[in-house]
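Our collaborator T.R. sent over the components below with a one-line note: 'Predict the complex.' Nothing else. No constraints on interfaces, no templates requested, no preferences about which chain binds where. So this is a plain run: every listed entity goes in together, and whatever single assembly comes back becomes the starting point for the next discussion.
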Amino acid sequence: MTAANANPAAPVERDPHYNFGYLDESTKRMLRRALLKAVAIPGYQVPFGSREMPLPYGWGTGGIQVTAAIIGAADVLKVIDQGSDDTTNAVNIRRFFGRVTGVATTESTRDASIIQTRHRIPETPLAEGQIMVYQVPIPEPLRWLEPSETETRTMHALAEYGGMHVRLYEDIAQYGHIATTYDYPVMVNGRYMMRPSPIPKFDNPKLDCSPALMLFGAGREKRVYAVPPYTSVKSLDFEDHPFTIEKWDECCDICGSENTFLDEIILDDRGSRRFVCSDTEYCARHAAENESPFRDDSEAQRTAAPQIGIDAGDPAHVGAAS
Amino acid sequence: MSATQPLLSVRNLTHTWDGVHGCRDIDFDLFSGEVLCVVGESGSGKSTLLQAVSYQVTPKLGSVWYDTRDAGFTDLAQLTAAERRMLARTDWGFVRQNARDGLRMQVSAGANIAERLMAIGDRHYGDLRAVAGEWLSKMEIEADRLDDTPQQFSGGMQQRLQIARNLVTRPRMVFMDEPTASLDVSVQARLLDLLRQLVTDLDLAAIVVTHDLAVARLLAHRTVVMRGGYIVESGLTDQILDDPQHPYTQLLVSSILQS
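Returned assembly:
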């Protein structure tokens, strides 16, 4: 154990003292039943008996339970946090599942069969058969509008979602445009209002009619919900203020990509900054594919890349967890 | 105010909270454009009556019939919960004593007014804003307060905003629970004036619960007097106030300070 802790990159052994997937079999069955119901009613929040997990609420207890319930010995797991494969949360959850299941883990989006994520959908398009598992802090999209759980459930049952536009109205009145940038509310299958977890709205279009299965788990709030493959997911907007995603004037400093979600990184206290892809795996692969780069110092930047990824993840991570 | 068909009919309505307190055997009709005042002392069942008639609580006994836009004259018990909520959001308005209960205090006045329109599917920001501005000026609030939150408004303005928020879907029926009670006298007079004008302009029917006979005198065509959960006297407002028959009504009228 001490040797493994000393080097987080070292592979972990399957620990036979734990049941496969950490949870006991009846708990996993209960979760799968909830997930089946969630898939059958896209966007509907299904209650489940959330268990204590060996990490604090807000760190992905919901996602980890969903993953534990669906993972099989043949699965290949990828875990990302803020788009990055090498931040603390991602590394530890990957090691956790390595230890309790012994499944293969990967950083490649294409090779993964299950991708547990916090805050991002990978830039690489998802394929049929892949499962995305989201860690959700607050599953109820109507919570800010209506504090009563009874009332929000009635509103879901009767599809009374008009009030959701009040927030968008308020954004436009105050800022001149819809300023909500993450956790942007969506309508699933034309019926249920859903919080897509705190992904940037940049990723919302990727949810729409995705070939992959999307599962959402909220551990503290004890809810799971799902978007089955090829389901319509529509972001809310006004006729005269249509939904738009974030845009940057810059391209990625490392791989040169122009159509990815970029993190801004402050380099010093004199205003120098650079923009890099938040999806580190996509960025590294894209950079490797462009083997004849247009920059002279590309080699130096590529070696610096993992370092930047960690720096980029941490401040945002702390902000979101608080 | 044609006598052909009432907008709202209440028959044998009884609702008690604990078998004792509440309102009993309530019967009345309300016609389009008519204002009915419910007066009585604290605990006489006025607010219970309002809640039971508007189906905010399901009455224990009796029925409430309403002339709905789609289905005509219908027993509200026959409607689904969804239809009743829709009715309450579009064809009815609710003005509460404390404007804070009826408003969304965190969001701007414009969003407060436009909320009902968004709830029935209006999705054009420019139009919503224009309508909100229109209603604000109708309520004698300056148009440049559109983006202020109700927290920055005075009590009287909050109450007017609450009324605007309710009237934006052009309801035919408004339930008011002590609309002027928390305001000072000069603001009360102004609000009553505005209410009277709105009721006439929009041909609104209203049930106004109040303990203030002056409100009844100014606003109401008809008045019912409640005591201990029962209606003890009902009739034209002037008749009730000028020639009270029931001893309790006589007491109520005589207790007004005469100058």
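Summary for T.R.: Residues 295-322 of chain A have pLDDT under 50 and may be disordered.
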